[in-house]
């Protein structure tokens, strides 16, 4: 049986989110391949609508999230919209993040098995809709990252919570640097659950779409039953794990850079420092503090904190300038508020963690753990 449950309102024939129940499975297909399935507000609403409808539907035993186009599950949020809304003072910007974070929370706390096919690019907002999955499937094409410091933002969508829960200081490393990782690294630090080659994955998806499934265990077994070892040749975490923990356990970004300069793992350290030199100094410092605080918070409180922080990022942070340089003017020469980490003050970092709302008036007040 196939029925369309939810569609984002679009003028064209194909919606940007195709939500359907087929063979006992709720299928969520992100269908904006020309933008690497980047999330718009309409897409967030369509996903939320479908998931809420399926949560208590006895015909839906599991949900599968996938991306159309073969290149990405989801490359993140629609950053060009962020830039337009921020420069115009459009309140839809806060609406976007409020509804996105509600969706992230819904996925992390979803009542039924939710399977994310993390094939291709999975970054930023794409991590927010996949890290809460009960089964996270990666392929040899997976390129995973929380790259926000590159555009003057911070790893949101619960990033301060899930990065805080990977082993050692890997969360700080991934959040501060925005380093892209592939399947083997993702599996090694618990950001993925199984590796299925892309060609095999396509066959499994077709089998699931052609069949009729009566339990979530049957559905999950179709993926875990064909899982293989991931290629470790391009791993960046596993071979440098000791160095990552030694450097990124330091108390400040300045201390991290000093540890990198003194690291015996010289080539890796030099590459990492060069990577960080391109990031927003202010947002690297904010991100480090975010992840450290995230170790001692609930997911709901984390998402409320991140919404607070987003109001500051576009008002007095580097968000508008970072997106301008990367995605609008594309000159790749952002003029950050600080030329180096040396001039970032502690009080500037602390200001990002001050909520503009009274607790009882917070837009995400209703989230629970």
From TrEMBL:
Lineage: Bacteria, Pseudomonadati, Pseudomonadota, Betaproteobacteria, Burkholderiales
Domain of life: Bacteria
Name under which the protein is recorded: Carnitinyl-CoA dehydratase
InterPro entries associated with the record: ClpP/crotonase-like_dom_sf, ECH_dom, HIBYL-CoA-H
Species this protein is from: Ralstonia mannitolilytica
One GO MF term: lyase activity
Keywords for this protein: Hydrolase, Lyase
EC number(s) per entry: 4.2.1.149
EC top class named in words: lyase
Stretches assigned to the Enoyl-CoA hydratase/isomerase domain: 25-353
One Pfam family recorded for the sequence: ECH_2
Annotated GO biological process: L-valine catabolic process
């Amino acid at each position: 049986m196939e029925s369309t449950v939810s569609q984002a309102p679009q003028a064209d024939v194909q919606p940007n989110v195709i939500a359907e129940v087929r063979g006992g499975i709720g299928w969520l297909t992100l269908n904006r391949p020309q933008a690497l399935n980047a999330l718009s507000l309409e897409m967030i609403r369509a996903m939320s609508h479908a998931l809420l409808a399926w949560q208590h539907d006895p015909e839906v035993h599991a949900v599968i999230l996938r991306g159309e186009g073969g290149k990405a599950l989801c490359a993140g949020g629609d950053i060009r919209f962020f830039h337009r809304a921020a420069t115009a003072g459009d309140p839809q910007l806060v609406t976007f993040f409020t509804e996105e974070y509600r969706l992230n929370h819904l996925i992390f706390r979803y009542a039924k098995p939710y399977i994310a096919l993390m094939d291709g690019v999975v970054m930023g907002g794409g991590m927010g809709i996949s890290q809460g999955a009960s089964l996270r499937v990666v392929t040899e094409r997976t390129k995973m990252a929380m790259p926000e410091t590159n555009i003057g933002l911070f790893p949101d969508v619960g990033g301060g919570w899930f990065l805080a829960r990977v082993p050692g200081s890997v969360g700080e490393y991934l959040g501060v640097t925005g380093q892209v990782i592939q399947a083997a690294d993702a599996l090694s630090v618990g950001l993925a659950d199984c590796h299925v080659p892309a060609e095999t994955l396509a066959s499994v998806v077709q089998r699931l779409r052609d069949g009729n499934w009566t339990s979530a265990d049957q559905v999950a077994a179709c993926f875990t039953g064909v899982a293989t070892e991931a290629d470790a040749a391009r791993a960046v975490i596993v071979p440098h794990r000791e160095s990552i923990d030694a450097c990124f356990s330091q108390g400040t970004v300045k201390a991290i850079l000093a540890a990198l300069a003194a690291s015996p793992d010289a080539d890796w350290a030099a590459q990492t420092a060069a990577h960080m030199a391109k990031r927003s100094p202010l947002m690297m410092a904010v991100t480090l503090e975010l992840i450290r605080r995230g170790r001692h918070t609930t997911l709901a409180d984390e998402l409320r904190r991140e919404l607070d922080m987003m109001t500051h990022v576009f008002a007095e942070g580097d968000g508008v300038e970072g997106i301008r340089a990367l995605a609008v003017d594309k000159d790749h020469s952002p003029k950050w508020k600080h030329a180096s980490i040396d001039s970032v003050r502690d009080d500037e970092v602390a200001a990002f963690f001050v909520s503009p709302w009274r607790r009882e008036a917070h837009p995400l007040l209703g989230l629970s753990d």
